[in-house]
Amino acid sequence: MRLFAFEYVTAGGWREIAAAPSLIAEGAMMLGALVRDLRRLPGLDIVVAADPALAPGAPGASRAAIDADDLRGSWSRIAAGCDLVWPIAPETAGLLEEVVRLAAAAGCEVLASRGQALAVARSKAATAERLGAHGIPVVATRALEATPPAAAEGWVVKPDDGAGAVDTVLVAGPAALADRRRQGTGRGFVVQPFIAGEPLSLSLLAQDGEAWLLCCNRQDLAVVDGRFRYRGGVVGGAEARRAALQPLAQRIAAALPDLWGYVGIDLIDGREGPVVLEINPRLTTSYVGLADSIGVNPAELVLALRERRLVELIRPLAPLPVPIAVGAA
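RESULT FIELD:
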């Protein structure tokens, strides 16, 4: 069986978006980890597309050539020669949704979330609205031009459809927030209250409204000159909070039953408990250390979801702490 492991940025997509160095580095790390895990499974021929101007590809996978002047045509051609496509792409401008549609149109089985899950997760505001409607604790999110939510320690301004910490800034007071509004960049930005607490993430599997929480992770986030920087973290570093986070993962999956396969959840564990920031219906950087943390091949689990119910796969796990590092942008 031929599987196209697709990473948008390393497959030439950096030419179309303002891909920060941090996103490029994280993309290469995720693609490398995915290929590593897939190579451990029998019967798979793995193909990747990597822009030669950016990266040499992923060890252990065949590399398919791309045409820099016709990226989508190249991706479609590669997908058409494969049975499965595992897409990794940012939510920005609906890119993840587009890649999923492109792969499906090529006649491939797509190993990804679908439908409303992709549409909702693309938008921070839509995510807050959906989760809030289901009684899930989520950070208040408003359009930058609207009246900001109440905030005791300043606000966070970010793209509504952004990925990672790109273009995410900390705003200390009303005057600075008004200045950010005046700077309008032509993109849709949102404002959220800054919530003091520990930044965490969840790595989980989802299928038809069910969730299996694989790992609770600590994130290393810093604010440098008012801008947030994601520097990595510790996969499995927040397992002490599993009892509180497991039911949260299940409630999120129930609120978005189109979530499928690997899903990442970003949250803040604050004084009032965990508060959701965003949903990533794709691989996240925590995937890089996931296999070593849980002692199980997560790629094998995702492929098993094609034929088995998630509840049949669930087993006790004892995640170990695995540090990962990402270079600062």
